[in-house]
Input
Amino acid sequence: QARLLESGGGLVQAGGSLRLSCGASELAFSRYALGWFRQSPGKEREIVAALSRNGGNTNYADSVKGRFTVSRDSAKDTIYLQMNSLRPEDTAVYYCAAKLSVWNSGQVYTQSSDYTYWGQGTQVTVSS
Output
C-alpha cells in the first residue's frame, strides 16, 4: 500500500527557515501531481503549494508566495517544501499529497479532494 511520510517540521523563530521533506513507499512521484497542504486548529486544510507531474508548473497560496518553494527529486522519490521568512501564522500541521496524473501533465491541483494519497503530517510551529 502506498504511503507518504513527511519530515522536517519543528519549532522555529519568526524569520527563520525550515525544509520539509516527503518520501514515498510503493509510489513513484514521477507519475504524480503533488501538493503541500496545511491545517491549523479550527481551520480547514488549505493548499500551500502544488507541483505538476511534469514539474513545469507550480501554484502557491498567496500567503506564501515569495517565501516558500516546492521541488521534487525524482531520483530520491522525495518532494520538498523550502520555507523561508516564516511567520507565526504559518504554524500548522503540514501534509504532502499525491494524485496520479497523466504522462507529462502540466496541471496542478489545489483542492484537497483532488488528492488520493496523504502523509500523516508534520508539525511546524513558528514563535514570535
Summary: The mean pLDDT is 96. DSSP finds no helices and eleven strands in the chain. The radius of gyration is 14 Å. Residues 97 and 118 are 4 Å apart (CA to CA).
